Amino acid sequence: MWDPELAELRRRREQAERMGGEERVARQHATGRLTIRERLAALTDDWREVGGLTGRTGDDGFTPSNVIIGRARLAGRRVIVAGDDFTVRGGAADAAIHEKQVLAERMAGEMRAPLIRLIDGTGGGGSVRQLEEYGRTYVPHNPGWDQVVANLGRIPVIALALGPVAGLGAARLVTSHVSIMVKGLSQVFIAGPAVVEAGMGESVGKEELGGWRTVAAAGTVDLVADSEEEAFELVRRVLSYLPQSAWQPPPVTAPADDPGRTAAELRAIVPRDRRRPYDMRAILDLVFDTGTVMELARGFAPSVITALARLDGHPVAVLASDPRVYGGGMTAQGADKTARFVDLAETFHLPVVHLVDQPGFVIGTAAERAGTIRRGARALAAVYQSTVPWASVLVRRVFGVAGAAHRPHDRYGLRVAWPSGDWGSLPIEGGLEVAFKRLLAEAGPRAAELKAEIAGRLEAVRSPFRTAEAFLVEDIIDPAETRPALTEWVHDAYAVLDPGPNPAARP
User: Which molecular function term from Gene Ontology is one that the record holds (predicted)?
Assistant: First the structure.
């Protein structure tokens, strides 16, 4: 019999379950945060830990590893979870055995199962205090980072910041497809306030440096939750749009909305005055399956809207412009947001629906200092490199190079326009004075009258029906019929999906 060894096994498991001990667990709770084991219980079903006996035995007894990994079910799907235990040396890697994190990455990638990272701590190489203990320094490296990068092209990776997250922990957070943080509970930064003050002479608090307002506006995180429980629900919801891996198509659900539903409200939503904005999100809510629009990175580059949604139960990636911000114009940050989102759609075979009202790149000295054209060209390249089916609805404006990014023009894609469509190399309002500058200057006191005459002539050829006559836009539709047109298209789109990993995936 092996009773002594089995008793020792039980004892060690009990020690691991205690994490950093009662005092540190109480300290974790005092900050309003759950422990890692409470998080696992709240997030997953059928949890199966891997490496639960890992740790170190010293003069003060057994200290478990502060990285907990394992297999689980989440909404019925197989997932791999890796979580930091802040009660053991604040989640720092010096108290962990890094092979556990590496194994979680490899396990998820090779089992083709989504990976969920629960990050609470630095995840880095420890503090300066340990140099005397080790008797040496080391050349920095990130163990298993090849697996972290490889997983971007093969499985969905969702990362949550559930406390102060810095250094390598922050890098693990953003090297994901969707990142989530909790208001007031988590902060994300390269280095914390004490290091910033010592290194830069800048005195700043945790919230100002890396709180949710700062981080969401910078695009560091995609979603912000009000609580840990809400963050876990966001994980479930995001995952519901994504396939198990890049080798599979996205999961189609039973439709909960009429695919042929029309929306008469769409006929009046775009104002006749081209200078007036409107609510693009109201269009999304009327076009896609009711209650399925899930916007990502709303606080970052707000003139660009990126969202996951469903059409007749089929997940799609949604691009749109918000005409209430810069008129919907594309900024340098908006270009980065667009490129990353198109890469997500390409990696996980999500057909793209683009609701287009694009007046062009935002211009001016600030735009030039931000390198808008270079970053905009990168967004255009992402669109052209995509291979997933593409549908564009020309809601209003389509101008310039940024407007040309409304679809990959080198292959077939559904494209329809509303009667409110307005397009060209430059808007007439902005281009007229440039094009007729000399003529207007020579007109002297008649300049205003002449300008009005020219504008009237140009307005006559501005009608989208003239463009349709030349087959330069394929169809003009009643806005109320947008949803039926797209739901018919999405079935054809899914019929030609060709799942497989995307070697060009980027974080």
Answer: propionyl-CoA carboxylase activity
Rounded Cα–Cα distance for residues 412 and 476 (Å): 17
- State percent of the chain over pLDDT 70: 88
User: For the purposes of burial, counting CB atoms within 10 Å of the CB of 496, is it exposed (0-12), middle (13-18) or buried (19 or more)?
Assistant: exposed
Spell out a b/e string for 442-462, using b for 16 or more CB atoms within 10 Å of the CB, else e: eeeeeeeeebeebeeebeeeb
Taking Cα atoms as reference points, which of 490, 492, 473, 472 lies closest to residue 482?
490
| Residues 190 and 289 occupy one common structural domain | no
CA separation for the pair 427, 359 (Å, rounded): 8
Q: Which residue has the higher pLDDT, 445 or 133?
A: 445
Q: How far apart are CA 254 and CA 256, in angstroms?
A: 6
Q: Dump pLDDT digits (tens) for 344-376.
A: 999 999 999 999 999 999 999 999 999 999 999
Question: β-strands 314-321, 304-311: how paired?
Answer: antiparallel
Q: Which domain, by its residues, includes 397?
A: 264-426+463-495
Q: Does residue 431 fall inside a structural domain? A: no
Q: What is the CATH number of the domain that holds 78?
A: 3.90.226.10
pLDDT tens for 454-463 read 666 666 667 8
Rounded to whole angstroms, the Cα distance separating 144 from 147 reads: 5
For residue 430, the tally of other CB atoms under 10 A from its CB is 12
On whether residue 70 sits in a domain, the answer given is yes
What residue ranges in 134-222 does DSSP mark as E strands? 157-161, 164-166, 178-182, 187-189
pLDDT for 441 beyond 80? no
Residue 132: CB partners within 8 Å, gap ≥ 6?
none
Q: Where are the alpha helices (DSSP H) in 318-371?
A: 332-347, 365-369
- Total domain count for the chain? 2
- Conformation bin of residue 75: beta by default, left when phi > 0, alpha when psi is -120 to 50: left
pLDDT band at 221 (very low <50, low <70, confident <90, very high): very high
Report yes or no: 459 and 427 within 8 Å, Cβ to Cβ: no
At residue 202, the 3 state secondary structure works out as: coil
Nearest CA to 101 out of 59, 122, 70 is that of: 70
Q: Can you tell me the mean pLDDT for 130-144? A: 72
User: Do 184 and 66 belong together in one domain?
Assistant: yes
Distance, in Å, from the CA atom of 20 to the CA atom of 144, rounded to the nearest integer, reads 26
Q: Are 281 and 235 in the same domain?
A: no
Sign (positive or negative) of CA dihedral 88, 92, 96, 99: positive
CA 42 to chain centre: 24
Q: Which amino acid is at 317?
A: A
